[in-house]
Design a protein that fits this description.
413 residues; mainly alpha; 4-stranded mixed β-sheet; 17 helices; globular; binds zinc ion
Length: 413
Amino acid sequence: MSTSDWLLIGILAFVAIDFLIGTLLNYLNEKSNQQPLSEQVSQIYDLTGYNKSLEYGTTKYKFGLFTSVVSTIVILLAIVLGWFAWLDASLREVIRSDLMVTVSFVGILIVLAAITGLPTSYYATFVIEEKFGFNKTTKKLFIADNIKQTLLSLALGLPLIGLIAWIYQELNSLFWLVGWLLISVFSLFMFIFGTRIFLPLFNKLKPLPAGELRDEVEAYCQSQGFPLSKLWEMDASKRSTKLNAFFSGMGKVKIIGLYDTLIQKLTTKEVVAVLAHEVGHYKRKHVYTMFLFSNVQTLILFALMGWLLGNPNLARALGSEIPSFHLSLISFVLLFSPLSTILGLIANSFSRFNEYQADQFSIDTYPGAREHLHSALKKLSVESLKDLNPHPMYVKVNYSHPPILERLANLKS
Ligand SMILES: [Zn+2]
């Protein structure tokens, strides 16, 4: 067998292994969650609420299994039947420039992914979320969101992939370094401005209205030197009843967003305790460490790409005799999916550690936060029907936040 045959087998094996591990983890997690109402759980749910949370988990588990079976079959078929090579060859018949072939190829994949993903997200939103009382999205908003997201992916993704392909074509041995620098600059831009620029395309942000909450928030922000002008209430309630808050940005361009659902359902002191947690992410410089980590991650990937992408067997494994940047890239991404999983594990454990740190910051800087954050997190879990007994392995792979019971126990200790 030739090298490209071995590569093809490797790619197919990794897609299959990825599916099997994902499915096994989901299964273990589903089993782990099916526990009788314990004393710990009864602090959060009554029996009706708990049963509803289990049913919600099971519904999502079954639907997730169905979608991952379908998508894995489609990917395997695309590889075995040479759909990627076919698309590449068809584009080469009408487009002369290699660069434009790459850009069109990626553009078509983005649009195809958006269209084929529609039924799944429609079902998740209008059947599952609807059934459990979370959904507030109208059909009109759903369509508008999907169109905007796709246009945004095209507007950001195509120039970026075009530039990277150009660097690859022109710089050869320096590709990995310059490509990495380009991605670093782009991700720095996104870390700083991403939320500030793109979130308003999907949500309205407004300052907190005058009143008791604003007074309490103002006093806290002043005590921490956090400008109130960077704090916004977001109209999340137009899509879902679930509650949340977030911190984003760097330096002067920072933003804390509080979902309007959070403000409606929590007491003033609970909201400020959550806000203090978000300020903690800012004060403990979590965005900087996350940015650094993601840079190391892309450096590793680009170093490997610089070493391997030039190998014509990568494109040949997908059925094309013409060396092609985008086909090699697809092979590369599929072959290195185990590495991405490992990097993801590290990023998640890092993020969970940061959550504890932000909780601690809230306790240290807002009197009574221990108790208020505790009750806020409980409400948040009930309002989102969160899983209380996830499987430890599932947590390692998928959780960017600590499981709720562990987080609550940590707040009490
Ligand atoms: Zn957090």
